[in-house]
Every structure is written in structure tokens, then in C-alpha cells.
Amino acid sequence: MRILICEDSVLLREGLVRLLEHSGHEVAAALPDTTELFTTLEHDMPDLAILDVRLPPTYSDEGIRAALRIREQYPDLPLLVLSQYVEERYASELISAYTPALGYLLKDRVADVTDFVESLEQIRTGGTILDPEVVAQLLTRSNHDNRMQRLTARERTVLAAVAEGKSNQAIAELLHLSEASVEKHITAIFQKLELEADGTGNRRVLAALAHIENQAASPQPRQD
């Protein structure tokens, strides 16, 4: 796998280069900032890109904004955002489309080299890898608490399809419903999870993340 790295820390950048090459991968480019990022992508497309969130010159959000631009221009390029921080606004926007081959991991929580390399390989093959802390912070921001229990069985089924990245049309075909019915179910889900449109969050991604966090608990739903 050919991998592009965009990381300002020399130590971490060179550490990633050595780690990836030792694991049998090729580093297509190792960039300190986004200055040459899109020129590099235009002339030498890698199999996967790793970007830090905070890069020069302001060390605020250059990296994750570049990730969003990559998603727009090269939607098929597998992408891993690797950061010390959860940039909530842009993280929500980046994840909201639920396009495949995407990861968001926190540097401090990447403790196992084998797991990290496996995560890259999963992303390369279309997987979505989200750090649990990223999910937790986005959900805390939505303040959903235990509101998942308010959903009916049908609403849970619709929400599960949303979490898989399916469009309203695809959900309608899957469940043999009209698109209007699907829209009504999704509106009800937003209301029950108290995910109101406020201009700063994405209700669809937060609802899907709520499903991801709660699916292990599997509380008994009400029937329609």
C-alpha cells in the first residue's frame, strides 16, 4: 500500500515512515504541511492518506479542512485523520456523509502498532474506523443521554440503515417503504434524540453515532 503522510512533527512523521516501511508499505510522500498536498495528489495519487488535524501555519484546523477538501475532490481516496484533538465541528462534517474508507484516531490512544497498521488496512478496504473518544465527544455534544430507548422498532431499523451510510432512497428500497415514509421516520428519530438543527452539528451523523454507541447494549424496543 502506498501511503501519503501530512504531519508537521518531524519525530512523528519520520516515526510513521519507519513504521509503515517496516510493515511492508511504501510512503509515497511525507509532507510537513498542506502547501504541496494537492499538487502531490494530482500528480501521484497514493492508496491512502494520513493527515494531522492541526498543521502550519496557524496550527488550528488546516489539516482537517484539507481532509474535507480531499473528500470533495477525491472521494475514493481512503483517508485517516490522526490528531491529538477532536475538532468537533469539522469531525462531524467529515463523518456526516458516511462515505467509506475513513478513519479518525487520536494520537494518544494509538498504543499498539499492530492495531494501527490493521486499522490502515481496514480503511484501505473501505472500512470506517472511529476512535471511541471521537464518538463520545460528538455524542456528548448532542446530549442524547438514554433517548435511544424512545425509538420504536421500525425507527431503530431505519437508524441502523442510516448508520450504514444508506441514503433515504436506499433505505426505502431495503424496507419496502416510500421515501416519504422514510423521511417521516428520520424526522421522528431526530425529534426523539433531541437532535435539533442548530447550524453547528449534523443531525444525521449524530443519530448514526448514537446507534453505533448503543447497539451493544441492545435495549428492548417498543413495537409500532
From TrEMBL:
Q: Which residues form the HTH luxR-type domain?
A: 144-214
GO terms for molecular function, please?
DNA binding
Q: Which residue positions does 4-aspartylphosphate occur at?
A: 52
The answer on whether this UniProt entry bears the keyword rRNA processing reads: no
What keywords were assigned to this record? DNA-binding, Phosphoprotein, Transcription, Transcription regulation
Q: Which SMART domains match?
A: HTH_LUXR, REC
Q: Which domain of life is it from?
A: Bacteria
Give the Response regulatory domain ranges.
Answer: 2-122
User: InterPro entries, alphabetically?
Assistant: CheY-like_superfamily, NreC/VraR/RcsB-like_REC, Sig_transdc_resp-reg_C-effctor, Sig_transdc_resp-reg_receiver, Tscrpt_reg_LuxR_C, WalR-like
Q: Which GO terms describe its biological process?
A: phosphorelay signal transduction system; regulation of DNA-templated transcription
| Annotated Pfam families | GerE, Response_reg
Against PANTHER family, the record matches this protein to: TRANSCRIPTIONAL REGULATORY PROTEIN NARL-RELATED, TWO-COMPONENT RESPONSE REGULATOR
Q: What is this protein called?
A: DNA-binding response regulator
